[in-house]
Write a structure and sequence with these properties.
The structure is a homotetramer. The first copy, chain A, is mostly helical. Chain A has 13 helices and 3 strands; from the N terminus they run βββααααααααααααα. Chains A and B meet through β1, α1, α2, α3 and α5 of A and β1, α1, α2, α3 and α5 of B.
Chain lengths: ~260, ~260, ~260, ~260
C-alpha cells in the first residue's frame, strides 16, 4: 500500500569498467580535458562549457576563492586547532558561515535582477534601475551587490570581470542593469556605491542563466579551495592559538579587574 | 607581561584599490588567467602553476569531484531537506564525512610512499615495494590506494591519470612505486588489487611534492564542487524525503510487527 | 586611529583556582546541583532555574532529543561511515539540517505568537487567534506549530507538555492562544490540525520569555544529545552502508537498464 | 542476487497515537520524569538511570558545557556573523573542533585506563599506574587527562566530581587508578600534573562502563548546550566582527608596512 517511491539521479553512474558523468565517459571525455571550474559548470548546467563559458565561469569562481583572513578562514583555523586530524571538518566549519551576510549577496543580487527583469523580457533598463532602487529605498533594504567597506570608488575585481564578460560575450542586459542600479543608488544616496565583486558575479550568473537559488553555490565551491590553503598555512605558521588566547584575555578582562578590586 | 603574540598570514591582503594574493596582483595577474584548479595549486604551493602542472593538478582534482550517490552526497541532500535556506551548511555536512574511510586513502597512500622512499632518496623500487607490502601484511593493515569494490581488474581512471602524468612529466618514481606495490600485493594475496583513483592521486601528490597531511585537501576542494551539483539536482528532483521514509519504515519494521503481534 | 574595539563576554572566566560561570562558583554552586537541562536554562537566561522552571524547561528539551530515524540522524550516520574517527563532525553534520523545515517551526510558532500578542499586552485571545489564522490563510502560508503527518487527531506529547505547564505555572496566555489558533485553523480548513510538539514548545518558550530568535537553540541542544545515541547504535549495528548501496542502486537503475538495452 | 540488506534501529518508533523511545512510552514514562542529562544516559545505555546514575552522569556532562571563550565558541560566533539565519550551522561549526586536542582527552584517558585494566580484572593498582606512566614516557606520548595549563596544583572540578562519585557509589578502581597515574607522573616528571576535568570524566566513564569510543560524545552533547548560550550572547553583544578585523589587521601588518616602504 506504500506509495511508489522514486529515487533517481541523472548525474552519473558506473559499472566495473565504465564511469559516466552527465552522459560523458569520464576517463576519456572529461579527465585531462576539463579543469576544476569546468567541472563546476558541468555540475550546474549538465553540459561541458565551450571556451567562452569556461573562461567566464572560471573567472567568476576564481574571484571567490581567496579573501584573506575572513571570519570563515578564522572559523576553519580555530576548528583545525582542536581537530587537526579532521581537516575536512575544519573546511566544513569555514563553509557554514557563507550565509546571508557575505556570500549570500551573490544570490541576493541575482534575484533582484531576475525579479526586475525576468528572463526573456526586454525593457527600458534605466527605468527598471530607477524602480528597483526606489523599491529597496522604500523598504529600507540594502541593495545587494553594491558598495564595499574598503574598495572605493571602485572594486578592482569588477572592471576586470566585466572586461572578461565583453571578451567572452557575456556582457548583456543584466550587466548593464546592475551598473545602472549602482549609478542610480549613488546618485540618490550621495555615497560611493560601486558594483562589488559579488554584485558583478550575481549579474554574470543571470547572463549565464543560473537559478538564483544556486548562485551561493559558486561561493561555496570556491571558498572550499581557499580554505584548504588557509589550513595548510595554519599547519605551518599557526595563528589560531594566539587568536584564542588574545580574545579570551580581552573578553574576560573586566572579570579579572573586578576580581582584583574585591581582593584589595 | 603577556608574551608577544604573532599573527601573520602570507596569503594575501588588500587596500582601497589593490588586492594581492600570494604576491600577485589579483585582478590583472590571476583573474581571467587562472582556472579554479590553478587557484587550488596556488593555495597549496604559493606559486602559479606552469602548463604541465596546471594540466596534471586539474586532472587530479577533477577525478575527485563527482562519484555519484555517495554517503557524502546523501548527507548533503538529507541536510538540504531540513534547511534549504542554508545550502552552504548542506555542503558542509557532506564534507564532514570525507575522513579516514574514503578520501583519506589519498593521504594514506602518499604517506606510505613517502615513508617507504623519502624525498631525495633513490633505491631499488622493487625491493621497497616488497618491503612495504610485507610490512602492511605483517601489521594486518589494508594497503591504502589499491583495490576497488567495483572497478576490476582496472580502475579506469588510473591509466588515464598516469597517461596524463607521462604527457606532463609527472610520471616518476612514486608512480612506479605504487604500481609495484599493487603488483606485489596482487601476487601475494591472489586477489585483483589495481591501483585505484585515490592511490594514483596519492602517488601524483608525492610527485608534486605535497605534504601528505594536505593531500586530503584535494578531495575536500573537489567534492565541494560536486556537492553543489547534487544540491541543485535535489532542488529539482528531490530524493531525500523518499530516502528518509523508506529507511525509517524498514528500520522500524520489527517494532510494528511486534506491535501487531501484541495487539492480536 | 583604529576605533576602539570591545570584546567582552559575561558568561564566565577562570584563574588558577577558580571557575566562575554566570556569576556562580562552578564547582560548588553548579556542579552536582544542576542537571544538563538546567545548564541550558542558565545559558539562555543567565540565572539558575527554580524547581518549576527546571521541570518545565527539561521537559521542553527532552521532547526534542529523540525522533528516531530522521534526516538529521541519517546524515549523522552517513557521515560517521566515512569518518568514524570524528564523531563530533558526524553530530555537526546532523545538526546542520535543523533549519526552517523541521526544528525551525519552534521559532516560527514563537514569533507568530509574539507578533500576535506582544509581551505585556492583553487582548481578546479568540479574536487574536481568528486574525492570526486569517492572516496566514490570506498570505497562503503554513501556520507553524500545528498539524502533524502522523500524529492525529492529537500529538501525544502536547497534552503532556501542557499538563506539566499547568503543574509548574507556565500555562498562560500563549498556551491558550496556540490552542485557539489550532482550533480556528481546524474549523476553517476542515482538517485535523492539532498543536504539535514544536508548537507546544514554541508557546512555552513565549511563556518563559525567550527571544524567538533563540528558540531553535532548544532543538539544537537537544538533538545533539540524541545524535550521539544514534552514532553509538551505528557503531554497533550499522545501517549507513546499506542505506548508501540501496539508494545508489535504485537511483541509478535507469542507467543500468539503458545500458543493457544498448548492449542488446 | 543482491545480498539481503538489514536496516534496523532499536532506539524508537511511533504510530498515530504512540511514541516509544528505548521501549518506554515517551509521553507518560519519559516526558516530565527525565531531565536532559538523563536522556543522554538513556541514549548511551538504553535504560533510564537510577538516582545515583542520574546525579553522577549529569555532573559529568554539566562539567563540559561551558568553558568560556574557547576556540570552539569563537568558531561558532564567527560562523554566526556570516549566517545568523542558520544558528544550527554555527553550533555545528563549533562542534567540529571537538577533536583529538581538547575534548578527545576524555576518550584518550578512558582508553588508557581500560587498556591498563580491562573490565573485570583486578590487579595491583600502584603497579599498573607505574607501568602505564612508564609506557607513555617510553613512547614519548602525553598522558591524557592529567595536567592543566591554568588550573594548578588542582583542577577545582576534579575533587568535586570525585566527591560526587563517592556519594553516588561511582568511586571505584578506575578513579583510584587515574589518581595513581597522576601521582606517579608528577613524581617522575617533577611537574604539577593534577587529574584534570577530562581525566576525571574519562575515569568516571570507565566506572559507568561506557565504550571508550563514545566518551567524546559526552563533550559533544554538553558543548552543544553551551554554544547556544554563546550565540545568544553574540546576538546581543557581538564580538566576532571585532575579532575578525583585529586579527586581519595584525596578520597583514607586514604587507602594509612593506607596501608603505615601497611607496616611499
Amino acid at each position: 500500500m506504500t506509495p511508489k517511491r522514486e529515487m533517481r539521479t541523472d548525474i552519473g553512474w558506473s559499472d566495473a569498467s565504465r564511469i559516466t558523468v552527465f552522459g560523458h565517459d569520464f576517463p576519456s571525455e572529461i579527465l585531462g580535458r576539463l579543469n576544476l571550474g569546468d567541472m563546476g559548470f558541468l555540475e550546474l548546467t549538465g553540459r561541458i562549457p565551450n571556451a567562452n563559458e569556461s573562461r567566464m565561469f572560471n573567472a567568476m569562481v576564481v574571484t571567490l576563492v581567496e579573501h584573506g583572513i575572513t571570519p570563515s578562514a578564522l572559523a576553519a583555523r580555530l576548528t583545525y586547532l582542536g581537530a587537526p586530524e579532521s581537516m575536512q571538518a575544519a573546511v566544513a566549519a569555514g563553509l557554514c558561515g557563507l550565509g546571508s551576510v557575505f556570500v549570500g549577496s551573490i544570490e541576493g543580487c541575482a534575484k533582484m535582477l531576475y525579479d526586475a527583469m525576468p528572463v526573456g523580457t526586454t525593457s527600458d533598463l534605466a527605468e527598471i534601475a530607477r524602480d528597483t532602487v526606489q523599491r529597496f529605498r522604500k523598504e529600507k533594504k540594502t541593495i545587494p551587490g553594491i558598495g564595499h567597506p574598503l574598495h572605493k570608488p571602485v572594486d578592482p575585481r569588477t572592471p576586470r570581470l566585466f572586461a572578461i564578460a565583453d571578451e567572452t560575450g557575456f556582457s548583456g542586459p543584466y550587466v548593464q542593469l546592475v551598473n545602472l542600479v549602482a549609478s542610480e543608488a549613488e546618485k540618490l544616496s550621495g555615497r560611493l556605491l560601486p558594483v562589488n565583486a559579488t554584485g558583478a558575479i550575481g549579474a554574470l550568473c543571470c547572463e549565464m542563466g543560473f537559478d538564483w537559488q544556486i548562485c551561493r553555490g559558486l561561493g561555496v565551491m570556491a571558498r572550499a579551495v581557499g580554505l584548504v590553503g588557509h589550513l595548510l598555512e595554519e599547519s605551518r605558521r599557526p595563528m589560531a592559538s594566539q587568536v584564542w588566547h588574545m580574545v579570551e584575555e580581552e573578553a574576560t578582562a573586566h572579570f579579572h579587574s573586578d576580581s582584583r578590586a574585591k581582593a584589595d
